[in-house]
Amino acid sequence: MAGAIASRMSFSSLKRKQPKTFTVRIVTMDAEMEFNCEMKWKGKDLFDLVCRTLGLRETWFFGLQYTIKDTVAWLKMDKKVLDHDVSKEEPVTFHFLAKFYPENAEEELVQEITQHLFFLQVKKQILDEKIYCPPEASVLLASYAVQAKYGDYDPSVHKRGFLAQEELLPKRVINLYQMTPEMWEERITAWYAEHRGRARDEAEMEYLKIAQDLEMYGVNYFAIRNKKGTELLLGVDALGLHIYDPENRLTPKISFPWNEIRNISYSDKEFTIKPLDKKIDVFKFNSSKLRVNKLILQLCIGNHDLFMRRRKADSLEVQQMKAQAREEKARKQMERQRLAREKQMREEAERTRDELERRLLQMKEEATMANEALMRSEETADLLAEKAQITEEEAKLLAQKAAEAEQEMQRIKATAIRTEEEKRLMEQKVLEAEVLALKMAEESERRAKEADQLKQDLQEAREAERRAKQKLLEITTKPTYPPMNPIPAPLPPDITSFNLIGDSLSFDFKDTDMKRLSMEIEKEKVEYMEKSKHLQEQLNELKTEIEALKLKERETALDILHNENSDRSGTSSKHNTIKKPSLLACPHLSPPNLSSWANLETCLRLTTSFLNICLNCLPLHSKPPLSSPCRAPSPEWPSLKSSSR
Description:
This protein is an alpha+beta fold. It has helices at 2-17, 43-54, 105-108, 112-127, 135-150, 171-176, 181-194, 200-211, 290-310, 316-477, 511-547, 557-567, 600-617; strands at 21-27, 32-38, 62-68, 71-74, 92-98, 220-225, 231-236, 240-244, 254-257, 261-267, 270-275, 283-287, 498-501, 504-507. A seven-stranded antiparallel sheet has the order 9-8-7-6-12-11-10, covered by helices on one side. α4 (112-127) packs across α8 (200-211), α5 (135-150) packs across α7 and α5 packs antiparallel against α8 (200-211). The longest helix is centred in the middle third of the chain and has 162 residues, at 316-477. It is elongated, with a radius of gyration of 70 Å. One of its GO terms (cellular component) is plasma membrane.
C-alpha cells in the first residue's frame, strides 16, 4: 500500500516537471530541419541550436527570418520565440538566411559551410532577379555553379543535354536573346571546361567574388518618402545607407557611409539620419509602417557593428577560426593533391592496362596468324616435296632432251654457218639492187625533167614556126613598096654579123655564130628576169614597210594618181603608144611588128624571133649579087635608153 502511494507520487512529480514544447521548422537554402523547443526559449536559444546543428561558427552573418503580413522580420535574440508575431500553428516556420553581407567574401568568410550558405543564397537572388546580373556575367557565374555541383568536366560523362534540367540563368537573360537552351548550354559548357581542377569550395568562392561586385549585391531596399513626399528607395548594405530613385536601383543618388554617420533614430514613422559633419543637413524620411522603421534600424545597427569590427583586430575566436580554416584548407589541399596523384596514377595504370590488353590482343592475333601461316607452310612443304619429286623426274627427261638438243644444236650451227654466208651474199645483192634502183629513180626523174623541158622547147618551136608561117603569109600577100633611104638604126653590139646599113642589108651568118648568139640572148634574158624579179621583191618589201607610216592627209595629187595606176596592176606601159616600125628589108618578108621596147625582155624576144625568120629566109637569098642586095625598108630601131631599167 505504501509502495503504491509512493509510486503514484513520483509519477505525478515527473509529470509536473516535464516542460511544455512546440515544434519549429527551420528551412535553410538546401535543407529543412525540425526541432522541439521549450515554451520559454528565447530567440538566441533556437538560433544557437540551429548553428550547432549546422556546425556554423560565423553566426554574426545569419539570422532567422519570418514573414508578418507580407513584411519581412528577423527573430530577436533576447525575446521569446513565441512572443514574436509568428503563427501559432505548428510547426512554426523560420528561414535560416544571411542577414548581413561581407565586404570581401574571400577575407571574411572562413568556414566552408558559411561560404556554401552564402553561395546558395546569392545564387537564388540572382536567378530570382533580386540582384541584377549582366548576361555575360550570368553565363560565367553559371559555369562556376556547374563546376561546384558536378566537379571537373568530363566529355564522356557530361554529354550534350546534361544541363537541360538545371536552372542556371535568369529568365530575363534567356528571354533577352533568340537562343535555344542548347546554345546556352554550349556556351556555359565552354566556360565550365576551363575551370578544371577547382574544388567545390573554390568554385563557390569564385562565384561570390564575382557576385559581390554587382551593384545590388547585399542591399536591402525599403520604400520611403522625403519631406516633400517624393517616393524614394533606401538601401542598407555593408558600406552604409544609400538613397535611390525607384526606377534605378543600380546607382544611388546619395550615399552615407557608416563612418560618416553620427546617429540614426526614428520616431513613429519618421526616420532620421544625422551625418558626422554638422554642416551637412539632417536627412529625414518617412516609411510606410512602424515595423519597417524597426527593421531598418535593426539592419543599420548590425551592419554598422560589422563595419567597425572589420576595421579592428580580429578577436581570439576569429583568429582561431581562421587558423583552423587555414589548417583545414591546407589539409584539404594536400588531400586533393593526393587524390589528384592517385587519380593520375590510376589513369596511367588504366592506360597501361589498356595498352597491355591491346598488345595482348594484338599478340594473340599475331599468334593465331602465325599458327595459320605455319599450317599453310606445312601444307606448302608437302606440296613442294611432291613437286620436287616430279621436278626431279622432269629433270631427268630434260637432261635426255638436252643431250638430244645439243646434237641438234651442233647440226643447226653447221647449217647456220652456211646460212650466214648465204645471208651475207643476199644482203650484199639486196644492197646493190637498192643502190641501182636509187640510181635508176634519179635517172628516171632526170629524164622526166628533160622530157618536160623538151616538150616545152618543142612547144616554143612550134609556136615560133607558127608565127614564122604567119609572117611569111603576110609577106607573100603584101604589095611591093618603092625603095626608101631610111636612116640606119644602131644594132646591139653582140650581133656582129647582122648589118643594116643605109639602103643595103647583107647577111653573113654561120651556124655556130647563130647558136652562140641565141645562147647569149637567152642568158641575158634569164639574168634580166632574175634581176627584175629580185628588184620587184625589194620594192614590194619596202612599200609594205613604209605603208604603215604613211600619212594619208599629206598625199599630193601625183601620189594619188600613182596609187591609182598601181592599183590597175600596170597592164599598160607608157611606151605602148610608140609606132610599130619595120625591122627588115626583104623581098619576101616584112619585119615583125614591135609594139614597144618597154623592157629588155621584150626586145630580146622580138630580136630572137626576127633572127629566126631571117635564118629561114637565108636559103632564098643564098646567092644574091653583091651589087644588088636584098632591099627592104630598114627597120626603125627605137632607142633603148627610154625603156631600160
